[in-house]
Each structure stands twice: as C-alpha cells, then as structure tokens.
Amino acid sequence: MNKFEQLGLNESLLRAINDLGFENPSEVQEKAIPLLLEKDTDIVALAQTGTGKTAAFGFPLIQKIDAENKNTQALILSPTRELCLQITNEIKLYSKYVKGLHTVAVYGGASITEQAKEIRRGAQIIVATPGRMQDMINRGLVNITQIDYCVLDEADEMLNMGFYDDIVSILSTSPTDKSTWLFSATMPQEVARIAREFMRKPLEITVGHKNSGSSTVSHEFYLVNARDRYEALKRLADANPDIFSVVFCRTKRDTQAVAEKLIENGYNAAALHGDLSQAQRDAVMKSFRNRQIQMLVATDVAARGIDVDNVTHVINYQLPDDIETYNHRSGRTGRAGKLGTSIVIITKSELRKINAIERTIKQKFEEKSIPSGIEICEIQLFHLANRIKDVEIDHEIDSYLPAIYEVMKDLTKEELIKKMVSVEFNRFINYYKKNKDLSAQKGGEERRDFSAGSGAVRFFINIGSRDDFDWMSLKDFLRDTLGLGRDDIFKVDVKEGFSFFNTEAEHAETVMDTFNSMHLEGRKINVEISKNDGGSNSRRRDHNGRSSGGNSNRGARGERRSDSFGGGRPPRRDGRDGGAPRRKDSNSGSRDRKPRRSN
Ligand code: AMP
C-alpha cells in the first residue's frame, strides 16, 4: 500500500497521483486528507503556497463529490485570477479519471456569459475569485444554495485584497450546514473573524509554526547605503548566475524603474505590476515560467498569484511595511520541498525591522556582505568553466571546425582553455576592478552624498534649450514630473545641451530615481549630482549635450556618479554596454517623443 493509499484515497485519485509522479504526501496532505475524508468538518489550515495544499483539499473534495449529480457541490474561492486558473488546472489533473466531474473557473477579465454557459453544462466544482463570483450570484448565473463544501484558499490574501464583503455575502448565500475549509498562510485578525463567524468548531491544522515562514527558506540580509541598493541587486544577480528570482519593490514606479534598468544593463528581467494590461501580465508570467526571465520585478499585489516552482531567490529590494507581506514574499521560494533564499537589501535605518521579522517567523537571518568584485569574478569563472564542460554540441558547427582548428592550431590545450575562459573573465574583472565594495557599516553615520553641507543638492540634467526648454518651462517640467511643490526646485540654469537645478536633499533620491529611468526623444535622460552647490558660478563640466545622452552609465566624465542606479553590467564582448543577451521585454516601452515616465 503506498502512502497515498494509506490516507484513504480511492483508485481513480491514486492513478492520477501516480501519473503526476507524487511519491509521498506532503505534511499538510498527511494531516488534512484523512481528516477531511473521514468527517464532514470545518477546518482551518495554516499552510503556505508550495506546501501541496491544493491537493490537501483537492483530493478529498474530488473523492467526496458525487460526479453523477450535475449540481454545483463545491465552491473554491481564491484571491487572484492566476491562482484561480492554477487551482482549476490542478483539480482537473487530479480528477482526470473521475468520469463526469467538471470543474469550471470563474474570474474577472473574461467573458461572464461563457463562464455561465460552462456552469449551466454542469460544474460540480467552481473555482472563483470573490468579485466575479459575487457578480454571477447577483445576476442569477450561478446557484450555490446546495453546495456541500466551500474552500477559502489563501484567505489572508483575499482579505488583504479587500474581498471581506464579497466573501461574507457569498457565504451567506450558501447553506449553513456545508463544510468550510479555510487555508491561509497567516492568521491575522480578519481571518480569525471569518473563522469565528462563519465556521462551526473548525479543527485546526498547522504546517510548521503558526505565522512562520516555510522552513525550506533561509533568510539573509545585506546592509548597504541607500544609494547602492540597485548596484547591490546587480551584484547579487552576478554572484548567482543561475538565479531565478522574484524581486519585490514597494511601488509600481520603482518596480518598473528597477526592471527597466536591469533590462538595460543586460539582465533577463521584466516588470509585473498593476499598470500592465492583463495580456501584458500574462505574457510576462509565461516568459517567467519558461525561464526566459530570470528576474521578475514585482509589486506585492501583482505577485499575489505567482505560483511558480523552483524560484531560487526572493529579493526584497525594499522591505514591505508589514511582516505578513514579508512572509508572503518569501513563500514564493522554497516551494514543493525545494530550498530557497529570501534576501533583504537593507539600509541601516531599517535594521530593527529584521529583528521584528525574526521574532515573528522564528527564524534567524544571516547577515551577509555584498560579494566583492573579485568574488563575483571567481563565481563567474567557474560557472563559465562548467557551462563549457556541459554544453551540448550542435553539429551545425561541424562544417566550421576545420577552419577554426586552423586558427587555433598553434595553441596548446592549456593555452586554449586559458584564452577561452578569459574572454568572459576579462569582461567581469575589468568591470569590477573599477568598482568599490558596497557593504555599509552598522556603526557611525551613513555617508550621504546628497547633503553636502547646505542641505540643497545641485543636479546636472542632460536636457536644455536645444530641447525647447527655458528656465521657466524646465522648472515647470521638473516640478510636474517629480510631483514637487512650487518652491522645491530652484536655481534652474538652462544651457544649450544641459541644465542645472537645485532641490532640498530630501528630494534627491526621488530626482535620481525618476529621471534616470526616463527618455526624451529616444535619448536617455541623465541626471547627476553636481559637486557644485549652485552658487553663481557653476563649475564648468566636461559635458556636451550630444554625448551625454544614450549610454552614460559608466560615469566616465571624471565625476563620481552617486545615483542609486549606477553603472551597468560588465561591457559586452562586442564592446557595447550591458553584458548578457538582452531581451527587449514587452513592457519595457517604446521611446516616444515626450519624456516617458517609467511607472
Ligand atoms: P501548492 O501548495 O498546492 O501550490 O503545490 C505546490 C506544487 O507542489 C504543485 O506544483 C503541486 O503539483 C506539487 N505537489 C503537490 N503535492 C505534491 C506531492 N505530494 N509531491 C510532490 N509534489 C506535490
């Protein structure tokens, strides 16, 4: 008897489980399945995604449902369309040998009449997002007055997303004597309230500790200065050549800006946030699943539905406000028994948050240093050596080999190897030779480039009268773009190909973040902090309007760049900027005439 059989599952499920290649039940499955098969009971299960919870409720549901009866017998509510589709797929896979059992997905953004038609044909299981479900109930397109089972999946997420009223309303349309199975990663007040008000003496199942992160995830933090955040992210990616990660930012604007910068610097990255159309989001997710994207930069809301196995790293580019969100983020890795790492890039002022997270998740963070240039070079070198060793040979190359042997004929084996790996190694070593180490010190004052004495910061920007700006129109443009007040921009000084302006130091990061991800007529806007304080004699700089556009990441003008989006990746083999093959992503946008905001 295999372990799934011991849990009491029937033949058709066992066959499907065998097809799926599941060998052993996961912890939540071991705990939930026998309980749910044996009794008609309510349960509250604390389990994250990736623990196998869909099967934990899916198997018993499929076994208990009467497939010969066409009425809707079970409703599964889930927070997002993405998750709704995933659950539907899983349930279909699990029930493939159960004749007559139909599962229908009901979610927004698709034809409601089509969904209603499918339900009319007979859907014993409906998997729905709360908003669309409520809509269908209101229009009389669905009948849940006879359901026996209601599953609330990712209950905390549904409540986070503001579905409380919909859930309450949906539950009140359903019979009171049904069984309710609630699954949630965490147990905030609102979830406890739903359990209290709508469930009857629920049994509780906990996988791992309550409110704890998954034990397959290790947690690390890297202390950096605020301006080095982006550079730190790049180094972490360079130090993990096979990274497959979700990078979390707090705002849509940061998400888009970080993704664009990564793409520009040669990484396989894309943004996922609410300003993208559904079609764009679907395209991004498809590329991510296919691993064409190695770094998916996402907001918390957009990432809610992400349910992709084998994510190696979750990177908190910025920490979220609350610990629950941190828990959700880190739960995107370490799934299905795999190990994962949750990384936090943090500044000194945020350090205390680490202690608070540690207390809640009952796991310690490891403090690590951003890898030095030489460490990255070593990692890349060995990665390359292994890639060469393991590469599959395409025999299309055979016809070129005689000529290539001729070119190499005077090299010994050792020389050949040395030269081959040097092609890549030189690229990294040359780049990193020029770059300082990034780890910030815990003690002492954080050094700020911005404030330079007076509290005002003077900026250089590579747009000027040649772009039809005078000082008044440039001031208006800067103010509007940055969302600042009337007097927040001062000492605007417009030259032909470039200009200068001042803001208070507190706005400096906004200025750098905003403008360094914008384009004007196909030209990249470049903003730099000037060492000059904006007195009457601006120091002459070696800028000329034309060369200051385009690829200016190297900061090659003798002035140290201090923006948070510093240099690119090591130069490409062909000498152009950016290292790895660049994927122009669908949401990286086109270059239009007007300055383009990146959010
Ligand atoms: P879930 O937590 O339901 O999102 O499941 C995460 C992933 O684990 C899904 O891809 C499932 O197909 C897979 N899975 C579920 N149960 C098992 C199991 N017992 N053994 C191996 N994989 C599983």
> Tell me about the biggest sheet?
7 strands, parallel
Q: Level of helix content?
A: 25-40%
Count of distinct structural domains: 4
Percent of sequence in beta strands: 5-15%
Provide the CATH superfamily of the largest domain: P-loop containing nucleotide triphosphate hydrolases
- Unreliable stretches (pLDDT < 50, length at least 5) are 209-213, 444-454, 536-568, 571-599
GO molecular function: ATP binding; hydrolase activity; RNA helicase activity; RNA strand annealing activity
InterPro entries: DbpA/CsdA_RNA-bd_dom, DEAD/DEAH_box_helicase_dom, DEAD/DEAH_RhlB, DEAD_box_RNA_helicases, Helicase_ATP-bd, Helicase_C-like, Nucleotide-bd_a/b_plait_sf, P-loop_NTPase
Protein name: RNA helicase
EC number: 3.6.4.13
Please characterize this protein's 3D structure:
The chain is an alpha/beta fold. The chain folds into four domains: 3-206, P-loop containing nucleotide triphosphate hydrolases (Rossmann fold), CATH 3.40.50; 217-368, P-loop containing nucleotide triphosphate hydrolases (Rossmann fold, 3-Layer(aba) Sandwich), CATH 3.40.50.300; 373-436, no CATH class; 448-599, RRM (RNA recognition motif) domain (Alpha-Beta Plaits, 2-Layer Sandwich), CATH 3.30.70.330. 37% of the residues lie in helices and 15% in strands. The protein is built from 21 helices and 20 strands. Strands 3-4-2-5-6-1-7 form a seven-stranded parallel beta sheet, sandwiched between helices. The protein has a seven-stranded parallel beta sheet with strand order 10-11-9-12-13-8-14, with helices on both faces. β16 (490-494) and β17 form a beta hairpin. α4 (53-64) packs across α5, α7 packs across α9 (164-173) and α17 (373-390) packs antiparallel against α19. It starts with a helix and ends in a 70-residue tail after the last strand. Bound molecules: adenosine monophosphate (AMP).
